[in-house]
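Review form for a predicted model. The reviewer records the input and the model, then writes brief findings.
Reviewer: anonymous (R2)
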Amino acid sequence: MKENIWIFGLLLLIVAFFFDGEILKFMYIIRLDFLINFINFISYFWVVVFILVMYIILLKDEKKIMLFGLIVVSTYILTILIKMMVMRERPENALVLEPDYSFPSSHAAVMFSTIALMNKEFPKLKWGFLGIALLVTFSRVYLGVHYTSDLIFGALLGYGVSRIFMYKNAIFNKIKVFLSVK
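Model under review:
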């Protein structure tokens, strides 16, 4: 099942690269004045930070919070490094001016980096976490500050980083349990 997500994501990324311009043109057409302020609000850095703080409050456990922080910070640093290597310019006609490069989307990467841990800890809320990540991610293309491929790659990157950390953490915990038994 998880392999299918990666295959689907990579296919979606390839298709998005070919249709980035057309998707942005479509977003320009469907912009609605009453939605722009709401979408812009969702996209604010402080709103994303607020969402992350709410997730931390939900986690409660110090070790899980540390893992969460490590995942989010690592993902953010990785997106900055990739932005500096790729240096893809942002789309023209954006509703919001952003000072850095477009690829990959830090918003998408950070929001999707939270999904693996939050879904593991709160499986009943998994659709809520996915919905929040998708809403923040969609806000970026709706405002015209990212191409769709920036968002898809960012989402795959964030989710991938979180899966790696979750896997490494699980192995580390098994080793600790094994060593404490002896």
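Findings: Helices lie at 2-29, 33-43, 45-59, 62-86, 106-113, 115-121, 126-142, 148-181.
Further findings: Residues 148-181 form the longest helix (34 residues).
Recommendation: see findings above.
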